[in-house]
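EI: anyone free to look at a 93-residue chain?
SC: sure, send it
EI:
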Amino acid sequence: MPLRVTEPELPLGHVERGARCEDSIRTKMIEVSSAAVAAGWTEEEVAFAIVNLALAAFQRSEAARSVEFSLGLPQGELCTGSMRVGHRRNSAV
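SC: here you go
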C-alpha cells in the first residue's frame, strides 16, 4: 500500500504551514515507530533513530544554511553531518 500524506493547502511562507506539515506526517511517524518497536527495537532506539534522521534531513536543507547565516556560523557548520544524538555507534560492529 503506498504511503499517503495530506498535500499542503497553504502557500509557502504561511505561518501555519509547518504545523500543518507536522500534523500531516504525525500519524505515519507513530505507525513507523510502533512497527519498529513491534519488530524488537526499543522505544529509545527508535526515538534516537527518528531524531537523527530528522536532523540529517535538516542538515541537507536550505533551512540549515539560513540558521548558520543567522547565527553567524561558518558556512557548512550545521551541514557537516557530524551532529548526532543518542547512542554511540560501536566501531567493532
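EI: The chain has three helices and no strands.
SC: 👍
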